[in-house]
Design brief:
Helix content: 40-55%
Mean pLDDT: 94
Largest sheet: 5 strands, parallel
Number of strands: 7
Order of helices and strands: EHEHEHHEHEHHHHEEHH
Distance between the termini: 31 Å
Length: 262
């Protein structure tokens, strides 16, 4: 058997790029595959980042797509995703990549890599278990430890690649065009400030799902007086447009996609 292939779940995020960077340095670019799964609502600049970084790394870039958007998945499964359950992660990311890996490699023929870092060390157990018998590694959990701001600085100053547009706009990740069903209130506040048109589009899609299901379901929930209550994107926008402020806990609640971690 030849050398094992090293497959990076390549999201377009800075963590996955630095994961690939370390694996290429250790295993050689000819043995590395960058596996990207497209949700069809990505920010246009993500594709520029994919092409520039794959060229910089010299590794093969594989692009997969189910063909549906997360909103189309929500309608198909008749469920509005939220921070706890998001079938788009499973159907558009996990299922697509799992099938491609199993169709092309036996467990002993490859190693899988995820871009979580040392600040997310507690998130390693689930994917290690779920991908068995395939081996999963997390290079950014190893020394030297780097923060996201440090990685983005190295990206531009050392690698000569412009950081993705969503990072420049203050988003915590570079996925789904600045949207995520798993995101928190602070994330959506930033989306409203930085891209109102896109926020309104997703607001309309949420209302479409509420009408379609005939239920008071929402992406977001908040805690008030010890109770968890539903909060529509429309209600959140109206609050913020009036000048109301989120609580400190809500402001820092950006949530996270983590599509390959469940």
């Amino acid at each position: 058997m030849g050398k094992r292939k090293h497959i990076i779940f390549y999201s377009g995020g800075i963590g996955s790029y630095f994961t690939a960077r370390r694996v290429v340095e250790k295993e050689g670019k000819e043995n590395v595959i960058l596996l990207f799964t497209d949700t069809k609502i990505e920010d246009e600049d993500l594709y520029r980042f994919l092409e520039e970084t794959s060229k910089k790394l010299g590794a093969k870039l594989i692009k997969l797509a189910d063909g549906r958007t997360p909103w189309e998945v929500a309608k198909d499964v008749k469920f509005l995703p939220n921070s706890r359950i998001a079938q788009c992660s499973h159907l558009l990311k996990q299922k697509m990549s799992d099938k491609w890996i199993k169709d092309n490699f036996k467990p002993e023929e490859c190693v899988l890599y995820l871009g979580i870092d040392w600040t997310e060390d507690h998130r390693r157990a689930a994917p290690k278990k779920n991908y068995l018998p395939y081996e999963v590694k997390f290079p950014m959990c190893d020394r030297p430890f780097l923060t996201k701001p440090q990685m983005l600085d190295i990206l531009e100053k050392e690698d000569g690649i412009k950081r993705p547009a969503l990072y420049r706009l203050g988003f915590a990740h570079n996925n789904c065009g600045g949207f995520c069903f798993r995101a928190g209130l602070g994330h959506f506040e930033n989306l409203l400030k930085k891209n109102r048109k896109l926020y309104l589009w997703h607001e309309g899609k949420e209302q479409e799902m509420r009408d379609y299901l005939g239920k008071d379901v929402t992406i977001l929930r908040r805690t008030r007086n010890g109770q968890r209550i539903n909060l529509t994107l429309k209600s959140l926008r109206e609050e913020l447009d009036k000048g109301d402020q989120l609580s400190w806990d809500e402001q820092i609640d950006v949530g996270g996609c983590g599509c390959f971690l469940d």
